[in-house]
Amino acid sequence: MQIEHQCPQCGGPVVLDETDRLLSCSFCKTKLCIQPQDYLRYYFPPSDPFLEDVLFIPYWRFRGIHFLCKTSRIEDRVIDKNFLAMDSEHFNPTLGIRPQSLKLKIVKPMENARFVQPKTPFDRSLVETKQTVTYEMVTVHETRLVRRGNEGDYDEVPETRTELKEERIFHESFIADTASLIYTPVYIRSGRYCDAILNEPLYRGPAVYEPLPYEALSGSWKVGFLPTLCPNCGWDTIAERDSSVLFCKNCNSAWEAGKNTLKRVDHAFVISKKVPEGTPRRYLPFWRIRADMENVRLACYADLVRLGNLPKVIRPGWEEPPFYFWTPAFKMTPAVYLRMSKQFTIANFTGEMSDSAPDAPIHSANLPLKDAIESLVTIIADLGIKKKEILPLLPDIKIKVREALLVLFPFAETNHECVQPDIRCGFMKKALEWGRNI
Question: Which end of the chain is flanked by fewer CB atoms within 10 Å, N or C?
Answer without folding.
Answer: N
